[in-house]
């Protein structure tokens, strides 16, 4: 298990304890905790623009490297797959989990605005109230918004993990970038396959929704030869992906029997 900087709400900086590291999936979910009323603005002049996916991956990479928060994650892509289980013995009992619930390759078929959130008084260091109570959903284009997310609809060509339908929606943070350029870049994936590693949020504002893991770093394009690229991993890509460099290799690993790692976090 290793820890790297990840995107998170600007008002917080956190580190991961040893116990939390054993529950990497839960750590990731805290970055997107928060109700899910979409604030779409289809009348925006750039609402349907198609751009370059490279912009998306560059923004995700920059957000990860900014060091806003530290998030524990597995040592490799293999250990990040849904069939890689972790059984952790903690002081509160034994917990079984996996870093992701779903891995898929497919094509983006729609991208639209999601939530925009304003933190109001919670941004004030002297604020003593509940931060969650201070979060306000505002219009997607509201200049007071501290963060935004978008809804990406994907039509999978292959998936492994939790059963899904013909399409699924993923809620994805815009990584602090221009949200319309970010959405345009995601629409650039409509004509090519991409790989997504996802977790179903178990808590907070987006409970039950699909979200990308590792600050969306495990989203990447698939080449014509089936090669998978994770540009947002930057220099860490080769060491993290290891031998799972193509969709067939990734699929074989994801469809193999479950692998279980046992950890004792009480010592």
| SS-based class | alpha+beta
Count of DSSP strands: 12
Along the chain, the helix and strand elements come as EHHHEEEEHEEEHEEEHHE
Report the average pLDDT across residues: 82
Label the overall shape. Answer: globular
Sheet of most strands: 7 strands, antiparallel
- The span between the termini is 17 Å
Low-confidence segments, given as residue ranges, are 3-40
Question: Number of helix segments?
Answer: 7
Percentage of residues in helical conformation: 10-25%
How much of the polypeptide forms β-strand, as a percent range? 25-35%
Q: Measured on Cα atoms, how large is the radius of gyration?
A: 18 Å
Describe the SSE topology.
Blueprint: E1 2-6, H1 18-21, H2 24-30, H3 53-65, E2 69-73, E3 84-90, E4 93-98, E5 102-118, H4 131-134, E6 136-138, E7 147-161, E8 168-173, H5 179-187, E9 194-200, E10 210-212, E11 219-221, H6 237-241, H7 247-254, E12 259-264
Helix pairs in contact: 3-5
Outline the structure in words:
By secondary structure, the chain is α+β, with helices and mostly antiparallel strands. Helices cover about 20% and strands about 30% of the residues. The chain contains 7 helices and 12 strands. Helix 3 (about 55-65) packs across helix 5 (about 180-185). The two termini are about 15 Å apart.
């Amino acid at each position: 298990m290793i820890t790297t900087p990840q995107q998170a709400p600007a008002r917080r900086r956190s580190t991961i304890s040893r116990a939390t590291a054993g529950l990497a999936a839960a750590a990731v979910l805290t970055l997107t905790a928060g109700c899910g009323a979409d604030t779409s603005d289809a009348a925006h002049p750039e609402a349907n623009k198609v751009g370059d996916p490279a912009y998306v991956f560059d923004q995700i990479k920059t957000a990860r490297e900014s060091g806003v928060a530290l998030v524990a994650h597995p040592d490799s892509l293999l250990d990040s797959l849904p069939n890689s289980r972790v059984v952790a013995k903690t002081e509160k009992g034994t917990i079984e989990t996996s870093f992701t619930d779903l891995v898929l390759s497919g094509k983006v078929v729609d991208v639209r605005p999601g939530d925009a959130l304003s933190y109001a008084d919670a941004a004030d260091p002297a604020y003593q109230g509940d931060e969650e109570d201070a979060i306000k959903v505002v219009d997607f284009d509201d200049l007071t918004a501290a963060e935004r997310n978008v809804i990406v609809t994907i039509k999978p060509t292959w998936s492994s993990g939790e059963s899904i339908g013909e399409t699924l929606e993923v809620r994805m943070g815009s990584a602090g970038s221009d949200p319309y350029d970010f959405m345009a870049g995601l629409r650039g994936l409509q004509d090519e396959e991409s790989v997504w590693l996802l977790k179903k949020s178990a808590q907070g504002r987006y409970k039950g929704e699909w979200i990308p893991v590792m600050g969306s770093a495990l989203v990447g394009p698939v080449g014509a030869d089936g090669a998978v690229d994770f540009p947002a991993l930057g220099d860490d890509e080769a060491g993290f992906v290891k031998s799972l460099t193509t969709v067939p290799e990734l699929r074989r690993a994801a469809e193999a029997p479950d692998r279980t790692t046992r950890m004792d976090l009480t010592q």
